[in-house]
Design a protein that fits this description.
AMIN_dom, 3 domains, 8-stranded antiparallel β-sheet, about 10% helix, Immunoglobulin-like, 5-stranded mixed β-sheet, mainly beta, signal, NAGPA, 40 strands
């Protein structure tokens, strides 16, 4: 009987103790829902829970993940969360130990800081990931030649920019390079840089798909392409000094009888009533059709007359006339003398190189946007885009800049923002070059930016910095 009483008492004690242990054990937290919100400044990730859990958090050394470890928490109901955000890629929940659950937040780019905290009513674990950043990387890539990459947050989103600064008085030359050395087809910037021994290269002019340059281009003192409208151009004098202005082209042909006929374009496809001047930069033939007349001119003398697709002999030009201009030149015959005159204006006629694009960004140290004045369409003038620019500082430093756009790591800039960026790097004069998928910077053979096409685009010409011969 005594033995039975002892067993009974022990059983009662065991039951009582087990009840005490059960009552003292913490309730298991359940992560019930995972959600997020985002702004230009931060991403907020929220874990809805039934009980607030214990946790620890750390940012990995590479700043590419935030790891949160929860203790005694059920995460089985949470799938991986993908985020459409330039900073955060995804949130994944895994079981690492029987009593430890891990949340891994994968980042697309380094962050400045994060804040992890809890809220009640309802119960939540919240992490705020701060996007604000402004990082610069600088590298001396040659004597007086500096490369800078800039990665910055803005209210609209992140910006990635790439700038090369060439100090004056160094053994480098800045000049345009024509794709394939002729107005035929297109070529990638990296290829042009390699072919011309360019230490730095960026895309330059607007262009047509057949390789024709849209706007002004002058190389080695010869006009390669004429503008159809007076737009901003960069001119380079023999001493390396840079000019910026809106430039018009004027060309004429004086006939044997003294009549003066206006040239309507240089190295462009001949259209109705045009008089186009073709030189050796255009390839070796004009590509014109039989509905006009091509006059081959060598040393100001008509040497041949052809109806369509004339050969352009070395050192010669071709005057190709259609419609009313064909009629005006119809009296010309082989052996006649003609006189050509081409001008960009007294000062600009002294330039060795010139590149037209536009609009103007900075003039005399003030923002000066000429989009409307130069009749640029909205796809160039309005909105954010990848962009390329060239400028000069007060003390003669030459700046080449490219900004990525239309991508998660960089949303692109407006023309105003591009002007302000050029001013930030010291430009007192600057102009916009071709942009969009064409925007590209090559330094020492390497593509430094991320073209928005996802690959290099073939373009009409490039602006390079190369060692002097």
């Amino acid at each position: 009987m005594k033995t039975f009483k002892r067993v009974y008492i022990v059983m009662i004690l065991l039951i009582f103790c087990s009840q005490i242990v059960w009552a003292a054990a913490p309730a298991k937290s359940v992560l019930q829902k995972l959600r997020y919100s985002q702004s230009a400044e931060q991403v907020r990730i929220v874990f809805d829970v039934n009980e607030l859990p214990e946790y620890t958090a750390q940012l990995t050394a590479k700043q590419d993940q935030i790891i949160i470890d929860f203790t005694n928490t059920d995460t089985s109901k949470l799938p991986m969360l993908q985020l459409n955000d330039p900073t955060v890629s995804n949130v994944q929940v895994t079981q690492v130990q029987p009593d430890k659950q891990r949340v891994v937040i994968t980042l697309k780019q380094p962050i400045v800081s994060y804040k992890l905290f809890t809220l009640s009513n309802p119960k939540r674990v919240v992490i705020d990931i701060v996007k604000e950043f402004d990082r610069k990387y600088e590298e001396q890539i040659g004597t007086g030649l500096k490369y800078t990459s800039l990665y910055r947050s803005t209210k609209a989103g992140p910006i990635s920019a790439y700038v090369v600064d060439l100090a004056p008085g160094n053994n480098y030359i800045v000049k345009p390079v024509l794709s394939n050395n002729a107005i035929v087809d297109l070529e990638k910037v990296q290829s042009m840089a390699e072919r011309s021994k360019g230490i730095v290269a960026v895309n330059a002019s607007y262009f047509a798909l057949n390789g024709e340059i849209i706007g002004l281009l002058k190389m080695d003192g010869e006009i390669v392409s004429s503008p159809t409208i007076g737009r901003t151009a960069l001119g380079i004098l023999p001493d390396g000094k840079m000019l910026f202005d809106q430039i018009d082209y004027k060309g004429t042909v004086t006939l044997p009888d003294g009549a003066i006929i206006a040239i309507t374009g240089v190295n462009h496809e001949r259209g109705q009533d045009d008089l186009i001047l073709y030189n050796n930069y255009y390839d070796n033939m004009t590509g014109t059709n039989e509905y006009g007349t091509d006059y081959i001119v060598s040393q100001n003398i008509i040497t041949a007359i052809v109806h369509g697709n004339a050969v352009i002999p070395p050192g010669a030009i071709v005057l190709s006339a259609h419609g009313s201009n064909e009629k005006a030149l119809s009296s010309l015959k082989i052996g006649d003398a003609v006189k050509m005159n081409q001008t960009l204006g007294p000062i600009w006629d002294k330039t060795i190189y010139a590149i037209g694009a536009g609009p103007r960004l900075v003039k005399n140290n003030s923002v000066f946007l000429t989009s409307k004045m130069e009749e640029f369409p909205p796809d160039i003038a309005v909105g954010r885009a990848p962009r390329t620019a060239v400028g000069v500082t007060k003390d003669g430093h030459i700046l080449l800049a490219v900004v990525d756009g239309r991508q998660q790591h960089s949303i692109g800039v407006t023309l105003l923002e591009l002007a302000l960026l050029m001013q930030e790097f010291g430009a007192v004069d600057a102009m916009n070059l071709d942009g969009g998928g064409s925007s590209e910077m090559v330094v020492k053979g390497k593509i430094m930016n991320k073209p928005s096409d996802g690959r290099e685009r073939s373009v009409g010409d490039a602006l390079i910095i190369a060692p002097k011969d």
